[in-house]
Every structure is written in structure tokens, then in C-alpha cells.
Amino acid sequence: MKTTKYGISCVAAFATALALAAYVHAGTVDMAPDKPVGISGLDQAVGTIDLARYPLFGGIGEYELRSRIVDVAPGGAMASHAHAGSPAFAILSEGVVIEYGDTAKRAVQPGALWVHDAPHWYRNPSTTQAAELWVVDLVAKTPAVCLICD
Question: 109 is in which domain, residue-wise?
Fold first, then answer.
């Protein structure tokens, strides 16, 4: 095995250099960039809710954004409800649900985002697969603040 003039084998020297390069590279990956890199869609809303349409009692400090993962078992259904004081977004992440509105119904597929802004209900038509919704809604911190919230 060849050695350097300092008595280090060439393999050990190469391994040390490789480890040092990996350490330096890892350090740059863990540093925040000066501007977004590889990011898109920051200025493209996929849905909005005009909060002026909702009777929000008290100041905005009386409310919080709540996020939930809602599981709908095969054949399960959510009762008809409105979002009078609790506007919401939902994304279906797994399965399929059928959403029913005043006069319409539609199949919601995975990846779909919709705004809950009218009375509606939904059911999972599958007999074998659960559905999963990710829901973000604005809710009063205390029920007394919003007397007409769901």
C-alpha cells in the first residue's frame, strides 16, 4: 500500500478527503437559500374564502385556524351541515366521496380541493376503502363567541 510522505495511506487520505467534501456539501444543503429555489405556486391561490361574508363575532383574536384529518369509513356519511361561522377548505387525500349540495351531487377524487361555503353533506360510496379528508377551518376559540357556528 502506498503511503504519503506523512505516513498516511493513499486510501485513507482519499477517504478523509471524501468525508470532508461530504461534510462541506451537507453544510451548504442545511443552510437557507437567499431566495426560493425550486419552488412554484407561491402566488397562485387554489382557493380563497372572503371572510367578510361570515358573521365573525369579536375580533380575529377570538378565532383560530384548525386543521384536521377526517376519516370516512366505507359506507360512512357526514350529516348535512353549513359553515355559517366556520369557513373551511378540504382536500381529499384518499378514497372517493360523493358530495351533495342543494340540488347537485358530484364525485370528489383524491387531490381535489374544495371550499365549504354552502350547506352540503357527503358520503363514502366504497364498501371496502376508507376516505380521508384534510380539513382546515376557521373556528371560534370559545363557543360563546360564535353562536351560529357548526
Answer: 51-140
- Asked if residue 14 belongs to a domain, the reply is no
pLDDT in tens, 4-43: 555 556 555 565 655 555 655 555 568 888 888 888 888 8
Is the pTM value of this prediction over 0.70?
no
Report yes or no on 18 lying in a domain: no
The three three-digit cell numbers of residue 14, written as one number: 482519499
Burial (CB count within 10 angstroms: exposed 0-12, middle 13-18, buried 19+), residue 62:
middle
Total of domains in the chain: 1
DSSP codes joined into one string, 43-88: T--S----GGGS---S-GGGEEEEEEEEEE-TT-EEEEE--TT--E
Half-sphere exposure of residue 125, counting CA atoms within 13 Å on the CB side? Answer: 10
| pLDDT score at 83 | 77
What CATH number is given to the structural domain containing 83? 2.60.120.10
